Amino acid sequence: MAAPELISPRSSRVAAARRLAKRNFRGKERLFLAEGPQAVREAAGHRSGGTPTLTELFATPEAAGRYADIVGAARDTGARIHLADESVIADISTTVTPQGLVGVCRFLDSPFDDIAAARPRLVAVLAHVRDPGNAGTVLRCADAAGADAVVFTDASVDLYNPKAVRASVGSHFHLPVAVGVPVERAVRALKDAGVRVLAADGAGEDDLDDELDAGTMGGPTAWIFGNEAWGLPEETRALADAVIRVPIHGKAESLNLATAAAVCLYASARAQRAGGAR
Asked: Cβ(133)–Cβ(162) under 8 Å?
């Protein structure tokens, strides 16, 4: 394996990448970090309008050897490859135990109007979600359930927060995501596109099991998910066509945000596959 070419955290390239851990620098440069082999692999395969998303890859010599296919894919996109000392990777990385690969990626969010115009069948809307780990996990759940898009409202955490990117485990690169959309605008446009909007809330008037039994879940649906601690404010609940609670059959006090989102999204996905709209 070749010796690392970047051995100092004071390198200008390293400093530029390290700054992307801060939101204001991400917004200014319209770049973000993707860490670990799975995220970098997905980034290397992603394009927006024909333009490769991955612009640079920092890799330790050991990681470059172990993940030679990923490094090769990154090189094929035209990304600059930097072999870096472990101390350099640790300086760029926001994880406690870096995996030796850190990619620099272009922003990839989609215009919300394009998402609404595509008349999606399943959408997750993150309203007032502040924890980046939860946001990334909900994005991953939406991807796994086959959702057509995810919307981050203007009151939610930054899509490109490093913890959100890690928690999505590559799902950032799999489906359209809109950012900074006022929740009122999102709901109005989705309804105009023929989408039924449901608010997920533990104190909801309607029960998810009852909705499934009634056969009302098979049509185009958007789920609004709220804040981890205090749920959805009343004004947001009022925007929805229905407020749905996930039933608790055991003694648990509640479900956390990501778990509830997975249950709701998969319920809709199954009903849609079964053609359950009546």
From this structure: no
- Inter-residue contact 151 to 159 (CB < 8 Å): no
Q: 52-66 as b/e, with b when 16 or more CB fall inside 10 Å?
A: bbbbbbbbbbebbeb
Q: Which residue shows structure tokens 């009302």?
A: 216
Distance CA 138, CA 63 (A): 29
pLDDT tens for each residue of 118-160: 999 999 999 989 999 999 999 999 999 999 999 999 989 999 9
pTM for the full model?
0.90
Please give the Cα distance from 36 to 191 (Å, whole number). 38
Split at pLDDT 50, 70, 90, the class of 10 is: confident
Beta pairing partners, 231: 227
- Number of Cβ within 10 Å of residue 249's Cβ equals 7
In sequence order, what DSSP letters do the residues of 33-101 get, joined into one string? EEESHHHHHHHHT-EETTEESEEEEEE-HHHHHHTHHHHHHHHHTT-EEEEB-HHHHHHH--SSS--SE
